[in-house]
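Hey everyone, long-time lurker, first post.

I ran two proteins through the pipeline my lab uses and got sequence/structure pairs for each. Pasting them in order. The first:
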Amino acid sequence: MTVPRWIPFLAAGLFLAAAITLAILWSRGALRHPSEDARSPSAPVACAPLNPSGPPPADCPQAKPPTQRTP
């Protein structure tokens, strides 16, 4: 059985189209994992103290003293 002449060209074209689509999505950041998102629920980098044993910066929510809760 012989393979029609257009099938290898179709396969190469589909592979090229997939590679171009992947490159475009990658360059626009559409293929990022949600853990890489800047809007993650973890604390912002600005609130991380330079010295881990030191206090957090004053503008961080963690730097405010805790308030007493009413029962």
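...and the second, right after it:
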Amino acid sequence: MKLTTDIEDTIDTIRDKIYEEIKDMTVSEEVAYFNIIAEEAKNKYGFRVVQSAVKDAVGTIHSTSSP
């Protein structure tokens, strides 16, 4: 009986590949690596970058709460 699905195997393969690519990078190199991938995906698929709703909510909570 197989305990994983094909998609899980694919995801594991992708994770292993990424790990091998970034394992010796500094934190700033990792950030740059993922930013490049995100920018490529944004351009390829036409994603829009919007300000974080969570960030907005936290800012609103902190600015309107009283001590």
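Reply from user beta_strand_b:
Welcome! Quick read of the second one: The chain has a mean pLDDT of 83. Residues 27-45 form the longest helix (19 residues).
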